[in-house]
UniProtKB/TrEMBL annotation:
It comes from Paenibacillus tianmuensis. The keyword Membrane applies. The keyword Membrane applies. Belongs to the UPF0014 family. One of its GO terms (cellular component) is plasma membrane. This is Putative ABC transport system permease protein. InterPro entries: UPF0014_fam. It is found in: Membrane. Its main location: membrane. The chain crosses the membrane at residues 6-22, 34-53, 59-76, 88-111, 117-138, 186-204, 210-236. Keywords: Membrane, Transmembrane, Transmembrane helix. It is a multi-pass membrane protein.
Length: 250
């Protein structure tokens, strides 16, 4: 893509801002900031990846994955700001998901142990885990608000913390995985995913692009399941006080 063609894509941003002004949505500033940040961040990442790919130093690769996990954990933790220790649990869940996913991909020889494969797929895996974590925390807050009476009654009857929160936890984990599952059901019929589309636009064989996209979809489903279940298991106690009462406000 030429520089002129890339600059021309700003017309889509202008359309978005005009719609916001027309409907008085007040999103013009957010759209402008988002546009600048995304462009700068992606360009910086592009140059960093170009450097890493050429140096082929595994420590640079580990550093990039570590930064991805840190940013993802911080962002997902915004969904439960008042819950102490939640970001550490998110980081543990995402790191474990990444480790399991990469171990299986490399162990079975599905991908090559090079930065060109590991970093992009790690980004997809960690990004999916971040979204699942945020959805789970949002749903947990809603569940605890609507089921507070039920949970407190169970605690009063002698139930353990796990027993009292179990149903809310299950519903939250299930809810966090729904977008991933729905995406798997409609991929290729409703949408052509970004990786597949990018490969086709770049001139790759469509069948080969589809094969890689199938890999990504299966990785996404696995990472969503692992992250959701693990985060739920290691974080449910954070929703209670030290003396075993449900925290105010969920």
């Amino acid at each position: 893509m030429s520089d002129l063609a890339l600059i021309s894509t700003l017309v889509f941003v202008v359309v978005t801002m005009l719609v916001s002004v027309w409907q008085k949505l007040g999103l013009e500033k957010d759209v402008a900031v988002g546009t600048i940040r995304s462009a700068v961040q992606l360009l910086l990442v592009g140059y960093v990846l170009q450097f890493v790919f050429h140096t082929d130093n595994p420590w640079f690769m580990v550093l990039i994955v570590g930064v991805m996990i840190s940013v993802a954990s911080w962002n997902a933790g915004q969904r439960a700001k008042g819950v102490a220790g939640i970001r550490l649990r998110i980081a543990v869940a995402i790191t474990t998901t990444e480790a399991i996913t990469m171990t299986m991909l490399l162990g079975f020889g599905i991908i090559q142990p090079t930065p060109q494969y590991i970093i992009p797929i790690s980004g997809i895996t960690i990004g999916s885990a971040m979204i699942v974590s945020g959805l789970l925390l949002n749903q947990m807050k809603r569940e605890l608000e609507s089921s507070r009476g039920e949970i407190e009654a169970l605690l009063a009857l002698g139930a353990t913390l796990r027993q009292a929160i179990q149903q809310s936890l299950k519903r939250s984990i299930k809810s966090s995985m729904i977008p991933t599952i729905d995406g798997m059901k409609t991929v290729g019929l409703v949408q052509l995913p970004g990786m597949m589309t990018g490969m086709i636009v770049a001139g790759a064989n469509p069948v080969e692009a589809v094969r890689y996209q199938i890999l990504i979809m299966f990785v996404l489903s696995s990472s969503a399941a692992i992250t959701g279940m693990l985060l739920g298991l290691i974080s449910y106690k954070l929703w209670f006080t030290r003396d075993g009462r449900l925290r105010p406000g969920g």
